[in-house]
Every structure is written in structure tokens, then in C-alpha cells.
Design a protein that fits this description.
The chain is about 35% helix and about 0% strand. The longest helix has about 35 residues. It is elongated and about 80 Å long.
Amino acid sequence: MAEVGKSFSGKIGFVKTESYWPVNHMVAPKEDSLQCDACHSRNGRLAHLAGFYLPGRDSSPVVDTAGWILVILALVCVIAHSILRVCCNTKEKDKS
């Protein structure tokens, strides 16, 4: 309060508030819903908004490259995991 030049008593209290939210959270029924590219494209509904990265609308070589590296890494991990499961399962059967 000193910063704005007002006095402050030192007392703090709370005000009872109520908030009402629609059950559907303002989501349209599936018949009226938009397709992804309605917003996630260069000429989409969000084309003129700035200050944030929107996949499909914005492009960043760093983000795009990192994304593809993660996709390839995940695929390599899944394949390696599958190979290990098959190899380990075969060795278990050979022992019995």
C-alpha cells in the first residue's frame, strides 16, 4: 500500500465468492466441433494471435527438430524393448 500511497491497517480478510461453471466447460457438441486445422494452420482462426507457439501455425526449426528427434528416439526405444522382450522370453523357454 505504501507504493501506491494508501494506508494499510495490517488486517487481512477473505471475501466469500462463488463461481459457476457450465457442465460442458463451453465445449461444443461433436456435431458443431471444429477440425484441428481450423486453429492449427497458418490461415486458421488463431492466425493473428501472437505471443505463444501454436503447433501447426508457427514454425521453429529448433522445436521441429527436437520433436522429430523425440519421435525417432521413442520409436528406437520401442523396437529395442520389443527385441529384448523376445530375446529374454526365448531364453526363459530354453531353460525349462
